[in-house]
Structure formats: C-alpha cells, structure tokens
Amino acid sequence: MFTSQGPTVRELAVQALSSVERGYDLLSPKFDQTPFRTPDRMLDAVEETLAQREGSFEAGLDVCCGTGAGLGMLRRLCRGRVTGVDLSAGMLAQAARAHPEERVDLVRADARALPAKLADSYDLAVSFGAFGHFLPAERPALFAGVHAALRPGGLFAFPIGAPIPPASPVWWAVAGFDAAMRVRNAVWRPPFVMYYRTFPLGDVRADLLAAGFAVETAPLDHFGRRGDGTPRWRLLLARKPGPGVPRRPPVRQHEPA
C-alpha cells in the first residue's frame, strides 16, 4: 500500500488490531515507505525556524522518535549528544540503522513516564506526528516528563496545524477516521490509540502552561496562509523558565495563537 515497498492492506489491518507498541513493531520495517513518516519538508521548516530564532543548542531530545526522521535535524541543530525515545523496539531498531553515529542515543521508554536518568539533560526537545497517540487526559504526564527532561531555559518545540474547516473534505475524512477508531477501541482489546482531532491548540497551550512552560508560537510560513491570513502551520515553542544558555535574538516576530 502507498508504494510497492510499503505495507499491504492486510499488514495495516493486523497493525490496527494490535496495541500501539505491537502495531508499530510490526509496521517498523516499512514505516518509512508510508505517508505516516514526517515529511522532510516539515523537518526542514522546523529546523530553519529554530536555527533562525535560537541558533544552536547543546543536547537534543526527540520524543517518540519512531524510525528517527527527526534525529538528523537534531544532530545539525545540537552541538552535543542527541537522544531518541520511543516505546516501540521495532521503530528504535530502524532508527539505529538509519543513525549509527556515535553521538545518537536511543532509549526505549513510554513518553508518559520518561526515565529519571533523562532529567535536566536537554536544551531542546522536539516531537513530530506522535500526539494523536495520547488521550487528552495523558497530556499532563507527557508534558511534565518533557519539562523535567529539559534544563532551565530549555525549549520544547513541535509543529501544530490550523483547525480544518468543516467544509473541507479533509475534515470529514479525519472525523470519520476518529469515529472508526473510537468504535474499534470500544469493541476490541488491546486499544490502539490514534486520533487526529484530540490536540487542539487552545487545550494544548493550557496543559503546557499548567506543566510550567512559557508558551508562544511562530508561523511556519513555508506552508502558506489560510484565506483569513493565519498560518496553516505554526511552531509551538514551550520554554522551561530559567536562565538557560545565551540565545540569539529572534529574527522574526511570533504570532499570537
């Protein structure tokens, strides 16, 4: 499916009837041949925006790193070691093959309970495409763990899309997918948590503030703007208070959410 090297419909069905961890273990050898991998265009946009606004960092953390699509970006942004964390051993195995570099560490862990050894270790944390796997009630634990992993002044950055208008066919597609997943999880165990509409900016901002972050956003103008002038994608920047390390001043203004 998707490409000749990608998973078949049967393989995707087996994944969907598994747990999140087992499903990604099964999908991992072919994951990068699916549209689920974070596009290079998004990675490049985030990297450029962070480099322009912040300069470089010392150590970096990729939360739910999957097969390691974001680790190359982190290595370029960070002078020191970078770490990828994921629950799936299969995805981490693929990441290890893609990034054999000595200064890349891979840790198998649940992002809702990051290991204590990661505390106060990073200046930058990122995450791409994983937040649909966390129910709203799980976000506080997720954000608290990232907050603890960052040094004072450290930054948690991730892209977040504008709301999809109900008139768009995409809205109906993702609404239908979420509804199907809710039915699946109501009648089948183990659950496979993956929803597209459970991560709205307002609620996410509130949970980040409650976790102790200072929050702002920057437009990712690489993806254009909607008819009302608002960006199609923003980079959410959640900073752990503290002196941190000296940063270069921003080169462009952030926009209010």
Structure report:
It holds the Pfam family Methyltransf_25. Residues 238-257 are annotated as: Disordered. InterPro entries: Methyltransf_25 (IPR041698), SAM-dependent_MTases_sf (IPR029063). The protein is an alpha/beta fold. 34% of the residues lie in helices and 17% in strands. It contains 8 helices and 7 strands, in the order αααβαβαββαβααββ. The protein has helices at residues 9-16, 20-27, 40-54, 71-77, 89-98, 139-149, 169-187, 201-210; strands at 60-63, 82-86, 104-108, 122-126, 150-161, 214-219, 233-239. It has a 7-stranded mixed sheet with strand order 3-2-1-4-5-7-6, with helices on both faces. α1 runs antiparallel to α2 and α6 packs across α8 (201-210).
SSE diagram, text form:
Blueprint lengths: L8 H8 L3 H8 L12 H15 L5 E4 L7 H7 L4 E5 L2 H10 L5 E5 L13 E5 L12 H11 E12 L7 H19 L13 H10 L3 E6 L13 E7 L18
Describe the structure in brief.
This protein is of the alpha/beta class and 257 residues long.
| Largest beta-sheet characterization | 7 strands, mixed
Number of strands: 7
Give the count of helical stretches. 8
CATH overall fold name of the largest domain? Rossmann fold
Number of domains: 2
Global outline: globular
Helix content: 25-40%
What is the CATH domain class of the largest domain?
Alpha Beta
H/E series: HHHEHEHEEHEHHEE
Instruction: Tell me the fraction of residues in β-strands, as a range.
Output: 15-25%
Q: Which residue ranges are poorly predicted, with pLDDT under 50 across at least 5 consecutive positions?
A: 244-257
Would you identify the CATH architecture of the largest domain?
3-Layer(aba) Sandwich
The CATH superfamily name of the largest domain is: Vaccinia Virus protein VP39
SSE class: alpha/beta
Q: Whole-number radius of gyration?
A: 18 Å
